[in-house]
Amino acid sequence: MTVPLDPAAVVAEFIARVGQYDPAPDAAPVAVVGVRTALGEGVYPMSDHVVRAMCRALVAYHDPDDRGRCTNCGGHRLDENLHCQDCGRLHGILGQVIAQHARRIADAHGDDVPGPGT
Length: 118
Ligand SMILES: [Zn+2]
Prior knowledge:
By secondary structure, the protein is α+β, with helices and mostly antiparallel strands.
C-alpha cells in the first residue's frame, strides 16, 4: 500500500528544488498556485523557471503502468496481461493467439469473428 502524500508539501518541494537553479530568483512570479487538501494546504508563487521545469518534467514523464494504447479503442488502461480495461481486447502474443484462434473457429463455422472480451 502506498503512503498518502501531502500534495501541498510536494508542490513546495518541487518549487524549492527547482528554484535553486532559477537564473532570475528576484523576478516577479508568473503565477500563484494554491493547494488545499485534507493533508495540508499552501499558497506558492511560481516563477517562469519553475513553470518551465514543470513542462520539462511532464515531457520526460513515463508512467510505470504505461503499457501502450489499445489498438481497438485507443484507451490507455491496459493491465499487466495487456488486457484493455475499457473495451476488453487482449493485446500482445496472448491476444494475437486468441484472436487467430477465434478467426479460425469463425472461418470453420462461417460465423462472424467474436468480439474482443467475449
Ligand atoms: Zn480498448
